[in-house]
Amino acid sequence: VARVKPRTRAGLAVAEIDGEAVVYDPVPSKLHYLNHSAALIFGLCDGHTTIAEMAETIGEAYEMDPGELDAQIRPLLKELRERGLVEGKAAEEIARAAAERDAAVAKLRRIPVPKDT
Amino acid sequence: MDELGHLGWVAYRSFELDGLLFGVRTDSADFAGWLADSLPAKLVLDEHAEPNYSVSLGGLGKLGRRFYILYRDSTVLARTFDVVELVRALLTDLDSLRYGHRSDAVYVQTMFLEVGGIDVLFPDELFGTFDEIRRRIRPLGLSLPASRFVAVDLGTGEVVPSPGSLEVDDAALRGLAELVPSEPTSWPRATLERRTAVDLLCTMGSPGPEPVQPVSRGFALYVLASQAANLHEVGGPGLKALGRLVEQAVCWEISSRDSRLMADSALGLARSIDAERTRATVGGTN
């Protein structure tokens, strides 16, 4: 089984401040607030780092046991996935909905609007 | 519009401005006629246009002075003896309807106020309350803002002037003064005429035991960004600009739900920061 290397969804705007982060997702036009822990994990979702490596990195920085961290990282990642901020099922659904919306808008633009309506 | 008569409103007009619809109801047929002739918007027929403004011209104050109120839905935008001030408040708010389509700055629904030497953003929920207690806050040397929005520079995160683009010509305003008895305001609302960094950012929080409490900059940024009218237009650069604004500010949230306590607490906070800064400056020069 390939080890999971979480990756943030493309197209998100992120502003980090004092270790926290605010993420703007333009597709459903939604804002997300990430506290210190969530922002830390979100920042490590680069598509190259496994969950175990995340735990090691954080463990080294904060002198914590990577084994205990692993159990804390997983639920946070689950939540980030559910919000569509990290690639996964929700992110795929958001991308699909966005593509459908763009197609519908393009179709509407092709309909001629009669004058004096 | 069957409810017009029942609620005391006698006329309703709907308008279109750059493709955006809005409606105005009023208790004065004369004023409705003046609006239709003078407002820089196209008169249209749409009974369900939103937002809905209401203009009450029939109020009498304690001393028999006539006062006028402008509402946007249920929010009071202006309460004044000066009908021209009321019209300007309407024009300012109509301008804000178009902010959602602009990309030259981030337009945020929050209220700029200078308290002493401190530049503050207050939640726009306090707009009406500050108006109610203007007699109490006027001696503090404050000028209430004309707009419930600020423009934030995309590059620097500073709050910048955003002149209104809608005007009614002077002849029409003189005509209005003949239609509606009015007293020119002695305390005009202020428009921002300089660019500035924000010293204190106050946002609305959940109800709590203290009327105000400190809040993290990250959460303050989240709340402020939620108030932006055009984040979908300015995207990432807009969010970064708001981040720069918040980085330079002290952030508190207002936890009270009593509007007057909220206003007093927010003003007290600004004054205490001003005093602290003055002490630090004096201490630094000694």
Report what the structure shows:
The complex is a heterodimer of chains A (117) and B (286). Chain A has helices spanning 36-44, 51-62, 66-82, 89-110, and strands spanning 13-17, 20-25, 30-34. The mean pLDDT of chain A is 88. Chain A is built from four helices and three strands. With 117 residues, chain A is α+β, with helices and mostly antiparallel strands. Chain A is elongated, with a radius of gyration of 19 Å. In chain A, strands 1-2-3 form a three-stranded antiparallel sheet. The longest helix of chain A is centred in the last third of the chain and has 22 residues, at 89-110. Chain B is of the alpha+beta class and 286 residues long. The model of chain B has no long low-confidence stretch (mean pLDDT 87). Chain A binds chain B through residues 13-22, 24, 26, 29, 31-35, 39, and chain B through 216-219, 221-222, 225-226, 231-232, 235-236, 239-240, 242-243, 246-247.
Number of strands of chain A: 3
Order of helices and strands of chain B: HEEHEEEEHEEEHHEEHEEHHEH
Task: Give the CA-based shape of chain A.
Answer: elongated
Category from helices, strands and their pairing of chain A: alpha+beta
Helix content of chain B: 25-40%
